[in-house]
Design a protein that fits this description.
8-stranded mixed beta sheet; alpha+beta; 17 helices
């Protein structure tokens, strides 16, 4: 399948006379003979004969048509248990189509799938179709289109065009039609839920227990489970954008093409979590260069064991009877029903061990395997987890696999169903509003009202007063016409003066990078406004300096879909237009901008021109005085925060909002100067103790402050009780800070804070990949700072076939959030430098605040 890069426009619809599909029988000629008899009786009956003939033959001779091709939509999105095919609003959605020849030796043309953007214009993706009988009449094609939140409008309908751009009729599901639609409209998965996809040759596996009603649990996010074969995986990573986690049991890399494998790896880098399990197939992982280099452990030889008690005790839940866990003795020491193969693995540098087998246990005199059975590492924004034992073997013994998957995929179990679906506050529109020209639109409306009032006064009272004074009443129509002309010219001048004589671009960017440099990732929202009605091509290149023409890339650019609010009305132009989206090259062609606003969203990946350096050391939970950072990004950072987690992600059942510290470190100018972190981070008031300072530096209190303007009374309760210091930033910045830590937002802490006494939480919306919760670990800290700079992602534009050029964003409406992960040197629990003996140490304080029993001191 090749996604072309040339322009295509619909020039019309046409049909050809049918030969093989529709045939007339002899009975069809009887009405014609009857009409001929009427004509022979007199020419004045000719009109009557023609009408009667048309009526009599309309049911016998269908409209001429030619069905040379059969087109069927096989799948839209991903097949999920209990839902069928499902999509996520606003994300790229794969549309799988099968095309077959009918009574024709060849066919050349294009397939198209379209969706409406926020303005009601149609954006479409197209793929070339070349069918030959000698190469097999049926071919499978995959198109990509963002999912529109609303149903109807022939959602995900597929159309067929010939080489001249004319719409073709074809057969779909046994019916002659111009549009092929899925047999069942896809369901919509909420952005706050988790989609887990099982990829294997065989059945779905024990991950299906998540949707088993007899084994159901209540988690902070609802899991939806799907299953596909490796051959059904997409060859562009954007096809997996709606998927959060993938389970690849008995992984065989040879089942994937090179493009599919590259797409899977890029999906991990963009924020996905891959659990890959292999024991019998471990040799295939070693032979795959692309997979072998990103694994978190070195793979050794394969051994056969009777049990893995350490791993089962750490990760597999005790057997349950209904909702209660039962522990019939040391069940994890019971052997498997049959011996299983396990790979000896050794964790690599930069990765960590999730669960290991010590090899200290013995069974019938035989020592068990010693191996790092489950290891994990970060890859870009995402994670890859390696299991040295096939999951089907690991779960063949006693125990509950739900606990295993909940731990790996960072699910947090809640106490009751009442906490699962609280009221959610949406933040996407708050962020997207920054690029919506809302202030300018209000100014336009105000000036339009003032201009209308001025025109009415001038055209009536003003002109009539002038006519009366001069005695020119007989010239009233002439004066009225002159006033109308003058007002029209003045309106044009004012409107063009306000819009400007070029483009206006507003931009929001969120950049994720590591302190040591390397590859960076960005999420970007654009609002583009023009002064005249024009057609343009737009493009998001990965390399701004080397940008020439769109080519295959890991970036993407798409129109911003309509709001997800089902009550909102979809805006429409009186004359809707269409333009082409090119998913593989992060570009769009022939976009019509009618001197109004078009909004786009994209993902960028590439390299930053600079980095954040430094050295951070933590001892007994506290940043040491010799820790520093250096801002070498080339842009000044303002209102910077430092996030420090004191416990690893999901190592405790509680949400960690009381175990993550937030330190305000102010502005970081770009340059070679070193900034002391401890001096910036620990700034208690003159009479304030360390304990009091840390108490008001918890993420819980900042959540209360940041969410104040989004959830009503929710904000003030916690911060007022604890005396938290407000962090004064704009609403867009607060929304980005909340989205960065939304996984740690605990609605239970704010229960009853709403007017109606309910519970509120923050929705992940369409920016769920911005959540840093599973990356906030004890081995690193996160620096979040803001810059009035467009960052590394730039929108390029051209008119006609001119060269692409970057569009300069409006400096007053440009916001970039840099989120830099800084590794730390953790010295453990040695004595603190200049420790205040009269106060609690940091670890004891955190234990007490999290509800743990205090350890006795000698």
């Amino acid at each position: 399948m090749i996604h072309g890069f040339h322009k295509e426009r619909v020039t019309g619809a046409g049909c050809q006379k049918s030969g093989p599909v529709f045939r007339a029988n002899r009975a069809g000629f009887l009405p014609l003979r009857f009409c001929n008899c009427i004509l022979q009786s007199g020419s004045h009956h000719s009109v009557t004969a023609m009408i009667l003939g048309a009526v009599l033959t309309s049911g016998i001779f269908p409209a001429p048509a030619l069905a040379r091709v059969e087109v069927n939509v096989d799948r839209v999105g991903w097949p999920l248990m209990r839902l069928g095919d499902a999509v996520r609003t606003g994300t790229w959605t794969p549309v799988v189509v099968t095309v077959s020849l009918l009574d024709q030796p060849t066919f050349d043309g294009t397939l198209r799938v379209r969706q409406l953007d926020a303005d009601g214009d149609a954006a479409y993706d197209a793929v070339e179709v070349h069918l030959r009988n000698e190469s097999g009449s049926a071919q499978r094609y995959e198109l990509y289109m963002f999912a529109q939140p609303r149903r109807g409008e022939a959602r995900f309908s597929v159309e067929l065009y010939d080489q001249d751009g004319k719409a073709e009729q074809f057969v779909s599901q046994g019916v002659l039609t111009m549009r092929a639609t899925p047999a069942q409209q896809p369901a919509i998965v909420d952005d706050n839920d988790v989609v887990v996809l099982s990829v294997s040759r065989e059945a779905i596996g024990r991950v299906r227990d998540f949707v088993d009603p007899d084994k159901s649990r209540f988690f902070d996010q609802a899991p939806f489970i799907g299953h596909v074969s490796p051959q059904e995986m997409p060859d562009l990573w954007i096809g997996l954008e709606a998927v959060d986690c993938i389970v690849w049991d008995d992984a065989r890399p040879e089942d994937l093409s090179d493009r599919q494998l590259l797409a899977l790896i890029e999906w991990i880098r963009q924020g996905g979590t891959l659990l890959i399990a292999a024991s019998r197939t471990a040799g295939s992982l070693v032979l795959s260069d692309r997979l072998a280099e990103i694994l978190p452990a070195d793979i050794g030889d394969v051994v056969v064991v009777d049990n893995l008690p350490d791993v089962r005790l750490q990760l597999v839940g005790a057997p349950r009877l209904g909702e209660q866990a039962v522990d019939p003795g040391e069940w994890y020491n019971n052997p498997f029903p049959r011996p299983i193969p396990v790979v000896r693995c050794t964790v690599r540098s930069g990765a960590f061990v999730v669960a290991a087998e010590s090899g200290s246990a013995a069974l019938e005199g035989q020592r068990l395997v010693q191996s790092d059975v489950l290891t994990e590492r970060e890859l870009g924004r995402g994670r890859i987890v390696l299991s040295a034992v096939a999951l089907s073997d690991l779960f063949s013994g006693e125990g509950e696999p739900i606990d295993f998957f909940a731990r790996i995929f960072q699910f947090r179990e809640l106490g009751s169903s009442d906490e699962v679906h609280p009221a959610t506050a949406s933040l996407f529109d708050r962020v997207a509003g920054y690029v919506s020209f809302a202030t300018r639109a209000s100014a336009y409306l105000l000036l339009a009202g003032m201009a209308s009032a001025a025109y009415v006064l001038a055209a009536t009272f003003g002109s009539w007063t002038l006519l009366l004074r001069r005695g020119w009443q007989r010239h009233s129509w002439t004066v009225f016409a002159m006033v109308a002309v003058a007002a029209s010219v003045l309106a044009i001048v004012v409107v063009n003066g306000m819009r400007g004589f070029g483009e206006r671009l507003h931009q929001v960017t969120v950049v994720d990078a590591n302190a040591d440099g390397g590859r960076a990732f960005a999420t970007v929202l654009f609002g583009l406004k023009t002064s005249t009605d024009k057609r343009v091509d737009v493009w998001l290149p990965s390399d701004v300096l080397g940008a020439r023409e769109p080519e295959r890339t890991d970036c993407f650019l798409r129109p911003m879909p309509a709001t997800g609010d089902p009550l909102a009305t979809l805006s429409r132009f009186a004359d809707p237009d269409e333009y082409r989206v090119l998913p593989a090259s992060a570009s769009m062609e022939d976009v019509r901008i009618r001197a109004t606003l078009k909004q786009f969203e994209g993902r960028w990946t590439g390299f930053l021109p600079g980095k954040v350096g430094g050295n951070v050391t933590i001892q007994r939970g506290q940043i040491t005085p010799d820790s520093y950072i250096v801002n070498q990004l080339g842009v000044d950072l303002s209102q910077c925060l430092l996030l420090q987690a004191r416990v690893p992600p999901n190592r405790t059942r509680a949400i960690r909002d009381t175990m993550i510290q937030v330190f305000e470190i102010g502005d970081l100018p770009s340059g070679p100067q070193q900034v002391s972190l401890s001096e910036r981070a620990y700034r208690p008031k003159p009479t304030e103790t360390l304990r009091a300072f840390l108490r008001r530096s918890m993420l819980h209190d900042y959540h209360a402050e940041w969410s104040r303007s989004f959830t009503g009374l929710l904000g003030g309760m916690g911060s007022a009780a604890r005396g938290a210091r407000p962090f004064l930033v704009g609403e867009e910045r607060k929304a980005l800070l909340l989205l960065s830590t939304v996984g740690e937002f605990d609605p239970v802490h704010f229960k009853g804070a709403l007017d109606w006494g309910g519970t509120a939480t923050i929705s992940r919306d369409r920016l769920r990949w911005l959540d840093l919760s599973d990356r906030l670990d004890v081995d690193s800290v996160y620096l979040i700072g803001f810059a009035d700079d467009p960052g590394p992602a730039r929108l390029f534009m051209r008119e006609g076939r001119r060269p692409y050029r970057p569009v300069g964003p409006d400096p007053r409406k440009t916001l970039t959030a840099y989120r830099i992960r800084i590794p730390v040197n953790n010295l453990g629990t040695g004595p603190l430098p200049e420790e205040d003996k009269s106060d609690e140490d940091v670890d004891s304080l955190i234990d007490r605040l999290s509800g743990k029993p205090a350890e006795s001191k000698p």
